[in-house]
Specification:
This protein is α/β, with parallel strands linked by helices and 412 residues long. The protein has 2 domains: 9-205 and 343-408, Crotonobetainyl-coa:carnitine coa-transferase, domain 1 (Rossmann fold), CATH 3.40.50.10540; 249-329, 2-Layer Sandwich (formyl-coa transferase, domain 3). It has 18 helices and 11 strands. It has a 6-stranded parallel β-sheet with strand order 3-2-1-4-5-6, with helices on both faces. Strands 7-8-9 form a 3-stranded antiparallel β-sheet, covered by helices on one side. It has a two-stranded antiparallel ribbon with strand order 10-11. Helix 1 (18-28) packs across helix 7 (168-189) and helix 6 (139-145) crosses helix 8. It starts with 8 loop residues before the first strand and ends with a helix. The structure holds coenzyme A. Coenzyme A binds next to helix 1, helix 4 and strand 5.
Length: 412
Amino acid sequence: MSKALEGVRVLDMTHVQSGPTCTQILAWFGADVIKVEFPGRGDITRSQLRDIPDVDSLYFTMLNSNKRSITLNTKSEKGKDIFWKLVRHCDVLVENFAPGALDRMGFTWDKIQQVNPGLIYGSVKGFGPGPFVDFKVYENVAQCMGGSASTTGFDDDVPTVTGAQIGDSGTGLHLVAGILAALIQRSHTGEGQRVECAMQDAVLNLCRIKLRDQQRLTRGPLKEYPQYPSDEFGDFVPRSGNASGGGQPGWVLKCAPGGQNDFIYVIIQPPGWALLMGVIGREDLITDPDWATPEVRLPKLDQCFELVEEWTLTKSKFEAMEVLSKLGVPCGPIMSMKELGEDEALRKTKTVVEVEHPERGKYLTVGNPIKLSKSPSEVGRAPLLGEHTEKVLAEIGLTEEEIENARLDGAI
Ligand code: COA
């Protein structure tokens, strides 16, 4: 079966997490992703957080599957010549170097366009044009500057970053959408274009409901926030703990036997109140005017959840889920990484996949969460450093002698 992006060649100048997330998805969709890495050391994540000495880290292998790797010193003269050949050969270039790094190597957008007017040039940077445009950025900086940290955690505690890599992987995902849109536009116009995603912008996009709440705040307190009904709201969106971001109240409730992840998230929709009260044996509160409607419950949501928690404490999180979801009450146990890694359903759908690597043996990775019915993803392993250098250079027209000379010069 052919793949959605078969025939699309990607010159992958990405490193660390944000850019590799983007190109990994393009590779899963069938693009030929050629990852360019500095000779000798490669992407810095190959050696970061290693769990096995001298073997590419899980950090690297879980972000670079299905790609080919070539080594190239793009600052050397021969390396630059090869880079331009690759630019002619490819449809898409993706990079997430520090601002200006490609320009400093002489690879300006003007020149790239002249050499290959059809090339789509995707970049991740920390910030868009503005006072911080030249700054380097990592995940948590983006979470802090995109509004996530100020709105995550509890009111009486410090701003909190989330474990979901919304700055890095979140921006990489946005970049995928931009590149695919540009590829479709190119199929009509024949022209390439620049696709730029700033990590601050991507995080803010993912926090859009908090900017919604900022505007609602000017018209009165946020009634679904745990701070309500006190009037202690300032002039900015506070941290709302585990409150639901939507119009339906939700909270994390303790379950048996009381371990660190023995919790279930429960949402109380208006029709769910009667069902929940039935389950916990408080039928009296179904019609009691002090409890019966969402409006009267709003100022005492904490008490509502305490009532339900008295019941969840007597069940394991999966038992509670079984009972509640049968009634149509939206809920979900807090899943640990251990449980997710072992989850049979996720393995069946290949969202969690075991991959064989020549140096590390088997490792677990997250497969493609986007399922195309006519382009299913086969998640392969990440390449070894420079594994495909000779093959790719031959494909772009270098002779064996030229390849040997490039090697002697240290360009590859
Ligand atoms: N050949 C020759 N030189 C190469 C090369 C290659 N194949 N690959 C990289 N380099 C050079 C770069 O040109 C740069 O040189 P310069 O400093 O002379 O311009 C140098 O290696 C270092 O690259 P840089 O991007 O500055 O790496 P860094 O480790 O200092 O910074 C980041 C890392 C992630 C902070 C930075 O790249 C960044 O801000 N990127 C954009 C935002 C981003 O993606 N952040 C999230 C990362 S998950």
